[in-house]
Design brief:
There is one protein chain. The chain is of the alpha/beta class. It has 14 helices and twelve strands. It has a single domain, classed as Inosine-uridine Nucleoside N-ribohydrolase, Chain A, CATH 3.90.245. The longest helix has 14 residues. It is globular and about 55 Å long. The N and C termini lie close together (about 5 Å). It binds alpha-D-ribofuranose and calcium ion (CA). The site of calcium ion has 8 residues, from helix 1. Calcium ion binds next to helix 1.
């Protein structure tokens, strides 16, 4: 188990598909995290399916009824919503055909849940966004004061001088709702960006690890293998890499143990929400040529070893 790490109060905002549910499972199994709730945004697959995926993940973790799940925005701020069943399977969970969880979602709107939780505990709530930033943007628009009350927002999104994964320019979460990303990046919120390149360099569960997981008997290992099944097929076909990309869970690992992020630099970062060709592209001003005040902490490198130690503790059913 990780050395005595500080206890963290987390709200996980997610477009629950395989990698998101792996990240959620890590938070549910973390000995130093208090998961205050889950809010659902519009990303990977059909909205109500994402809600069910989050509820089922909580059930597999043995926390059914203990972690509230709040449906958030069912549509990006402006753009038409385009999903990614081709990456994750029609259910987002590797087409595993999981049963319906007993727990039902809350009636409260996810954006209101974010605003109310942050206002109830200024300086204490860490937001972890592993999908498009629609809910976070709406929360900041509803109550701009939360930007200074959030302890920190960690988001999986964008790229730092690296190819996109949904277009040559853009990573999926930023591409789905670039207008929300624009609002959040300029909100003044303390935030850390974990780009797609961190996953491809340090967060890919490789073939030999997948083979090891395939023969593990824990519920967590079987869940991981199932929910990431389609993403493994997609990654081999499109990226030519044989493994399971874990962008959301390496982001969650960084939240749970800051030592996972081995190189973090404060930079000015902006996002393109105007052009079509580079819609959703994030530009990290690495050389400070724009002379703009830095607005983000960018993770430049992460410890694959530490991440995988945490991931495998979860897969063995041990506290992360
Ligand atoms: O680009 C990868 C990101 O988009 C991941 O968070 C994945 O779940 C999707 O939301
Ligand atoms: Ca996601």
């Amino acid at each position: 188990m990780g050395e005595n790490l500080p206890s963290i109060r987390i709200l996980h905002d997610t477009d629950t598909a395989g990698d998101d549910s792996t990240a959620l499972m890590m938070a549910l199994k973390a000995s130093n995290a208090i998961l205050e709730g889950v809010t659902i945004n519009c990303g990977n697959v059909a909205f109500d399916q994402q809600v069910e995926n989050a509820l089922y993940t909580i059930e597999v973790a043995g926390k059914s009824g203990k972690i509230p799940v709040y449906p958030g925005a069912r549509h990006p701020l402006i753009r038409e919503w385009e999903t990614a069943e081709n990456v994750h399977g029609n259910d987002g969970m590797g087409d595993s055909g999981f049963p319906r969880a007993n727990q039902r979602p809350e009636q409260k709107f996810g954006v209101d849940a974010i605003v109310d939780l942050v206002n109830s505990a200024p300086g204490e709530i860490t937001l972890v966004a592993t999908g498009p930033l629609t809910n976070i943007a709406l929360a900041v628009r509803k109550d701009p004061s939360i930007a200074k009350k959030v302890k920190r927002l960690y988001f999986m999104g964008g790229t730092n001088q690296y190819l996109g994964n949904v277009t040559p320019a853009a990573e999926f979460n930023m591409w789905v709702d670039p207008d929300a990303a624009k609002i959040v990046l300029h909100s003044g919120m303390p935030m850390t960006m974990v780009g797609w390149e961190i996953c491809m360099r340090h967060g890919l569960v490789n073939r030999s690890e997948l083979d090891e997981i395939a023969i593990m008997s824990t519920a967590e290992a079987k869940f991981f293998a199932a929910v990431n099944r389609r993403a493994v097929e997609f990654t081999k076909e499109v990226e030519g890499r044989d493994g399971a990309p874990c962008p959301d869970s390496i982001t969650m690992a960084i939240v749970l143990n800051k030592a996972v992020a081995t190189d973090v630099r404060r930079k000015f970062v902006d996002v393109d929400n105007e052009s079509e060709l580079s819609r959703g592209a994030t530009y990290v001003d690495h050389l400070n040529v724009l002379k703009m005040r830095p607005n983000l902490d960018v993770v430049y490198a992460a410890s694959e070893r530490l991440f995988k130690e945490m991931l495998f503790r979860m897969l063995r059913g041990e506290p992360v």
